[in-house]
Design goal:
It is found in: Membrane. By secondary structure, this protein is an all-alpha fold. It contains three helices and no strands.
């Protein structure tokens, strides 16, 4: 249930940041940094939906890989999207340098989702 609640909060924040970026920050960021902000927001939205989907599957199919996927998506939201938001606003390279850690976390989330799906939904092998 906590992952569903977190996905709800994350979805709210994704809409808030998207609107704030488009209506308040766009003029002050410049084209390059507004593009970075939009990338952060796009990944924020997509991975919030991924978090929600895995959290919902996890209710009926508890599986350690699904739990790991949820945690990885959360890490990606903070490390990738969060750092790109900060980079766009504060324009400090350290934030851009930390973003790849979040990208790796997003990839791990997708890998864990795949492993969980294989474990839960793959047909059981028949003995010879």
């Amino acid at each position: 249930m906590r992952f569903i609640l977190t996905a709800g909060i994350s979805g709210f924040l994704a809409v808030f940041f998207g609107a704030f970026g488009s209506h308040v920050l766009k003029a002050s960021l410049g084209e390059k940094f507004f593009s970075v902000f939009q990338t952060a927001n796009q990944y924020h939205f997509w991975h919030t939906l991924a978090l929600l989907a895995v959290a919902l599957v996890r209710i009926d199919r508890p599986q350690k890989f699904f739990t790991a996927a949820c945690w990885a998506y959360l890490a990606g939201l903070l490390l990738f999207s969060g750092n790109l938001y900060l980079y766009a606003v504060y324009q400090q390279r350290i934030f851009a340098m930390l973003a790849p850690l979040g990208g790796a976390a997003y990839m791990l989330g997708w890998l864990f989702l795949t492993l969980g799906a294989v474990r839960v939904f793959a047909p059981a092998s028949k003995p010879d």
